[in-house]
Design a protein that fits this description.
The chain is of the alpha/beta class and 364 residues long. It contains eleven helices and 16 strands.
Amino acid sequence: MAVLHVAAELEPIKRAGELAKWVREVVLEEGGRVLLLGYEGRRAIDGIEVVGGGALPRVPVSDVLEEAFMELFTTLAEVPYRLDPSGIELVEGHEWRGGLVAYVLAKRLGVPFRFSIYTREEERGGWGFVSEAVKSVEAFLEREADEVVERRSGRVSKTRAASRESRLEYEVLHISWEYPPHMVGGLGRAVVSMVHKLSEITRTAVLTIGLPGRVEDEERGLLTILRVDPFTLRTTGLISWVYAFNALMVAKALSKGLRPRLLHAHDWLSAPAAVALKHLLRVPLVATIHATEYGRSRGSISTPMQQQIHYWEWRLTYEAWKVFVCSGAMRGEVLAAFALPRDKVIVLPNGIDLESFDAYSPAP
């Protein structure tokens, strides 16, 4: 069986501990190819091809979970251009960092996902919020894997047949963290108006998050609403929480076989998923910027959280073919914050649905 191994460490290229040696032993025994996370290059080790997943952006992170998710989204955007997927029959993720990437790639390729465990977080003696979050990721990957192998004992604890749903084609797939019943501000209302009007004339989908107990998908005529549970994984703060539900949105889109003709992302909270899907599905991307960290902070981007938000806002506007804003003032803010070509940013003013006022009568 042709295996694609996904790992964060591999001796002698990248080593932080014993994992690098263990992964090398398994790879040499099983054969196949290796996707090495956080590595910028390509080489061979004893006849095994090793392809780098791409260097991480120089953006400060607060903990290992944020770093792992940054690794995930960097790799998903790079791997279509670095790795020929032909012949891959199984994707194997080594430990939780390799497992995250392998889980999504297996969805994209429609092949089984094997999760290889060498040590668990509990054995490594971790503690605190970060450790609990890592345990949550490990448990999730064990649940989702088609096969789990505990490498030290050789025990296979779970096997099942991989499945994939049929291909679903849409004209536009909107990716937004706000959509009813999860509404926070004006972004959600703008998305609702857009997709409802679009779905009157063409097949439209929304990829979003739900609320606890309310994560069901919906079909409303030409409109499909796909939701993920944003609390599936424990996280360490806002940034890692956003990364987690973006990863789940990518996995859901791939497992459902979504094939839109256009992606439309809304603000940084959907940027990681949008950028990954643009490259994995090779479809054009447009973005609506409703607000920026640059504007909220009056140009002061200093903390790791601010720098990551600003990075994803920039990355989204860089990757998008066109960027939409609702006013001339917002256009000026976006141009100043991200140094975009002026013809890339288009003003689409907010509209008013006059019919919505018909139900109200003037006060006597």
